[in-house]
Amino acid sequence: MHYFRDYAMTALILGFFASAWFAWAQEKPPETWKKPLMIAGALSLVVAAIGAFSAWRHWNDGSALSEPGAMRRYGIIAGVEFGIAAVGSIVLVLSRHRPLIPAWICLVVGVHFWPMASVLKNPSLLILGAILCVVAVAAVLLARRSSLLPSAYAGVGAGTALLGFACWGAVWANS
């Protein structure tokens, strides 16, 4: 990635979605998790706000998405991601496996980062994608061995990974 604006947008978008994952983890977590999850969600929004401010400051610096065809590929990847996530979620609901939806969404989001890495010229998204895929599988396996829902594990794992990469983007956007 070569553009400060892209680093800033990484902080904004990943910080926002980290907060959403920490919120999803609050679907019946242990009592001791509630306060740390709220703090992590708030911290994620702070990082997102830093990203938003940095993006505004660097808006005219350019972006990987300014390259010919990049926005179209970005839109196609995002559209396919949303479609696959929706269809899989419907199948899980109809097959009475609703608790697996967070792990499914985490897996789809992880996989979507692999083609996005080339569009955004950010190879670190390959690593983030792999981490999210591992989190998705681990969430299901851990939930089977405990009384917690997959959303607890997927939410904490995905939220933490996204927040880490959002922080990385915020640091680079402001360096």
Task: Describe the protein's architecture and organization.
This protein is mainly α. The chain has helices at 4-24, 34-57, 70-94, 101-119, 124-144, 150-173.
The sequence of SSEs as H and E is HHHHHH
Secondary-structure-based class equals: mainly alpha
Mean pLDDT: 96
Strand content: under 5%
Quaternary assembly: single chain
Shape: globular
User: How many DSSP helices?
Assistant: 6
- C-alpha termini separation: 14 Å
Gyration radius, in Å: 16 Å
State the share of residues found in helices, binned by percent: over 70%
Number of DSSP strand runs: 0
Largest sheet: none
Low-confidence regions: none
Features:
mainly alpha, 6 helices, 175 residues
Secondary-structure map:
Blueprint: H1 4-24, H2 34-57, H3 70-94, H4 101-119, H5 124-144, H6 150-173
Concise synopsis of the structure shown:
This protein has 6 helices and no strands. The chain is mostly helical and 175 residues long. Helix 3 (70-94) packs antiparallel against helix 4 (101-119) and helix 4 (101-119) runs parallel beside helix 6.
